[in-house]
Design brief:
With about 350 residues, the protein is of the alpha+beta class. It is about 30% helix and about 25% strand. The chain is built from nine helices and 15 strands. Strands 1, 5, 6, 7, 8, 9, 10, 11, 12 and 13 form a ten-stranded mixed beta sheet that branches. Strands 2-4-3 form a three-stranded antiparallel beta sheet, with no helix packed on it. Strands 14-15 form a two-stranded antiparallel ribbon. Helix 1 runs parallel beside helix 7. The radius of gyration is 24 Å and the shape is globular. The mean pLDDT is about 90.
Length: about 350
């Protein structure tokens, strides 16, 4: 963990960022190890909880867990520990999470500025769509629903989803006037009526919350926040967590062998996962500081094909070790420039 902390600090000195947008998310690592425990999907797995730093594209903190540990278990403790691994130069923290982060102790910790270093932490967290929340959504006037747009070829187009402010105060914070006050947003998307096929039972349960409004059936989701951004801007910003942080999970498990655990011993597997986190952060740092900007989005398969697994001949001559690559190979200039930048990294920032 300390080595990873030093690596994060090194990356910060070369690419300073004053804001840290942190995404907390757990991922399932399925396994056939007999010592592993069953996860909520009914399969044996481990379930590490990761903190992703969006601006740097790095994982400052990760906790390896058994598969039966819920994603939100002791989230406040993990969040506090993760904040300690942010390097100098970070002065503002924002936090995003799915509904696993909808816990009033951590929301209060962020809103009431209980962290001595960063003070008040802005957040956007998915909230549970309970019956009480649905009642509050049903009371929203139809005129208050606003469309959500996306940019297509430089033009704004409607997505089919809408958002609105919701007047909602959960019971957990309603007992005191001095408690924190949050802002709740709801999004809805109309569902097309599905015509069942003969002899096939209709799907009674859906994997997302729904409700009927004005005679139509909608998918409904909620967000709780302490930020005063425009609602549509906030929703787009919140949805970015579903991109890079979850892509990082695929890189962890597939590209860097985090999903190929070595044995049934929990401690050894945790060490393997920690080494993988180091490799992930080192790879991200090298792509940002050594390679060209176009390499930032490339995954390890592309890097191995174009840069690492190149044919060459190793020659010892005059007490020197030489590597000869194919004459005129398109990666030659890239290799030379990468070595020059690596040598420059040894100098103080």
């Amino acid at each position: 963990v300390e080595v990873n902390k030093d690596l994060i600090a090194f990356s910060q000195t070369r690419n300073p960022q004053s804001t840290a947008t942190l995404d907390t998310d757990a991922t399932l690592v399925e396994t056939s190890k007999k010592e592993a425990l069953f996860c909520y999907q009914g399969e044996k797995a481990y379930q590490p909880l990761n903190i992703w730093w969006a601006e740097q594209g790095l994982i400052p903190y990760s906790e390896f867990r058994d598969g039966n540990v819920p994603a939100g278990y002791q989230l406040l403790r993990v969040f506090k520990e993760g904040l300690q691994y942010l390097p100098e130069g970070v002065v503002k923290v924002r936090w995003r999470s799915d509904t696993a982060g909808y816990q009033h102790d951590i929301l209060e910790y962020c809103e009431m500025a209980k962290n001595e270093r960063f003070g008040r932490i802005e957040f956007a967290v998915g909230c549970d769509v309970t019956q009480e929340f649905k009642k509050a959504v049903a009371e929203v006037e139809e005129a208050e629903w606003k469309p959500i747009y996306k940019i297509v070829n430089g033009q704004r187009e409607k997505t089919g989803s809408e958002w609105a402010e919701v007047c909602f105060v959960p019971n957990a914070i309603s007992h005191s006037k001095k408690g924190p006050a949050y802002r709740y947003l709801a999004t809805r998307e109309a569902m097309e009526e599905q015509i069942g096929l003969p002899g096939i039972e209709p799907q009674l349960e859906l994997p997302f919350p729904t409700m009927h409004l004005k005679g139509k059936k909608y998918k409904v989701f909620g967000i709780v926040t302490n930020m005063d951004w425009d609602g549509e801007e906030l929703i787009h910003w919140y949805h970015k967590r579903c991109g890079k942080s979850e892509e990082a999970h695929a890189v962890m498990k597939e590209d860097l062998a985090g999903g190929k655990l070595p044995c049934g011993d929990f401690g050894a597997n945790a060490a393997w996962w920690g080494i993988m986190i180091l490799a992930l952060n080192l790879n991200a740092t090298m792509k940002k500081l050594v390679l060209e900007e176009s390499w930032g989005s490339k995954r390890m398969k592309a890097i191995r094909f174009s840069l690492i697994n190149l044919p060459g001949r190793v020659i010892e001559h005059s007490r020197r070790l030489l590597i000869r690559v194919t004459k005129g190979h398109p990666s030659f200039d890239l290799l030379v420039e990468a070595r020059r930048k690596i040598a420059m990294l040894a100098a103080p920032a």
